[in-house]
């Protein structure tokens, strides 16, 4: 959950683009995505435990075969590095827009904290998510419920058969899951030696349902304020205006924490692929990657998302198809 609930999710912008804009079909998309997240999350953890993996390399070979797995391995490394760079830029954007400070301060703080967590190894990554993910979920749910309570009866707008780059509501939901599964696969596959099959499957179910439930609450709150909410870059901050000044500031902090946990997940996935987690080499690779990608803070956060994320989604379809088809074919 920590690797999926990034800046786009916590700000409400992802939910706006992939679900809310389809209006009365939005909740159908949420249901489809929830089913996919539950199934795929459980499957990745089950396979990781079964194969005793410590990185996503073995998972890719199992799902895609030797040749295609090498290609997807290279793409995944690029995606993880690119995602980390985007999160560093995002941290700078939050500090600049919501705190009025230099964006380099926010970027530097995210870089330093990411390096510090990586130096704690796998346990450090798990500890950070165990603390921050519940906080993120709690604040998002409080803001959305408050917005719903002060709106009255929700009237879902009539669907207008919206068609754009994401296609219809079903294709949009599939693409959302597709680009959001790259990082979780990299992170969850590193747990194969520490998580048993039963725990893995239950974790996948609970995590998927929690993600879907949170997305549904954001969608309902967004639909209650649609279409005016579509004019905002950070839709949840618009909803938070109803709760007062301090709630807005708290939500800005939440978005930054979402960026931080996603940055950590990206860096961990990259480093654990190239070195055993908790090893000195793992820490050096992780820290080196963060330092190398720090110049991404020079670029605009929104432009990076606009140009890079669609690329992630279409390549992620290869992995999704492998997860859905391979376990059916290989029954051993």
Describe the overall structure.
Mean pLDDT is 80; it is low at 159-166. By secondary structure, the chain is mainly alpha-helical. The protein is built from 13 helices and no strands. It has helices spanning 7-11, 13-18, 26-51, 56-98, 103-118, 121-149, 169-180, 182-188, 197-224, 235-240, 245-274, 280-293, 301-329. Helix 4 crosses helix 8 and helix 4 runs antiparallel to helix 13. The chain has one domain (7-327): Amino acid/polyamine transporter I (Up-down Bundle). The longest helix is centred in the first third of the chain and has 43 residues, at 56-98. The chain is 76% helix and 0% strand.
Distance between the termini: 29 Å
Fold-level CATH name: Amino acid/polyamine transporter I
Gyration radius over CA: 19 Å
Uncertain regions spanning at least 5 consecutive residues: 159-166
Task: Please tell me the total number of domains.
Answer: 1
What is the approximate shape?
A: globular
CATH superfamily (homologous) name = Amino acid/polyamine transporter I
Topology, number of strands: 0
The proportion of strand residues reads: under 5%
Structural class: mainly alpha
Order of helices and strands: HHHHHHHHHHHHH
The pLDDT mean sits at 80
Count the DSSP helices.
13
């Amino acid at each position: 959950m920590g690797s999926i609930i990034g800046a786009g999710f916590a700000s409400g912008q992802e939910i706006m683009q992939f679900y809310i804009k389809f209006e009365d079909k939005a909740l159908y998309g949420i249901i489809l995505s929830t089913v996919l997240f539950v199934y795929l999350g459980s499957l990745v953890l089950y396979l990781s435990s079964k194969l005793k993996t410590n990185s996503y390399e073995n998972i890719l070979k199992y799902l895609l075969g030797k040749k295609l797995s090498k290609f997807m391995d290279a793409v995944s490394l690029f995606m993880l590095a690119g995602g980390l760079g985007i999160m560093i830029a995002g941290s700078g954007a939050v500090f600049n827009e919501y705190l009025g400070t230099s964006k380099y301060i926010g970027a530097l703080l995210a870089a330093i904290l990411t390096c510090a967590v990586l130096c704690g190894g796998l346990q450090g990554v798990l500890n950070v998510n165990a603390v921050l993910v519940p906080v993120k979920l709690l604040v998002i749910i409080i803001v959305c419920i408050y917005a719903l309570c002060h709106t009255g009866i929700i009237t879902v707008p009539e669907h207008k058969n919206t068609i754009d780059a994401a296609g219809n509501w079903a294709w949009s939901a599939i693409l959302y899951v597709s680009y959001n599964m790259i990082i979780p696969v990299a992170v969850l596959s590193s747990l194969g030696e520490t998580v048993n099959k039963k725990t893995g499957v239950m974790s996948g179910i609970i995590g998927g349902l929690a993600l879907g439930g949170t997305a549904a609450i954001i969608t309902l709150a967004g639909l209650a304020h649609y279409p005016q909410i579509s004019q905002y870059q950070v839709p949840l901050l618009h909803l938070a205006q109803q709760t007062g000044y301090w709630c807005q500031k708290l939500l800005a902090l939440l978005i930054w924490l979402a960026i931080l946990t996603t940055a950590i997940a990206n860096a961990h996935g990259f480093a654990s692929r190239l070195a055993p987690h908790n090893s000195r080499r793992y820490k050096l690779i992780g820290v080196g990657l963060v330092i190398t990608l720090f110049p991404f803070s020079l670029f605009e956060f929104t432009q990076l998302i606009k140009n890079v994320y669609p690329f992630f989604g279409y390549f992620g379809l290869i992995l999704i198809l492998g997860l859905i088809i391979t376990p059916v074919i290989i029954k051993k």
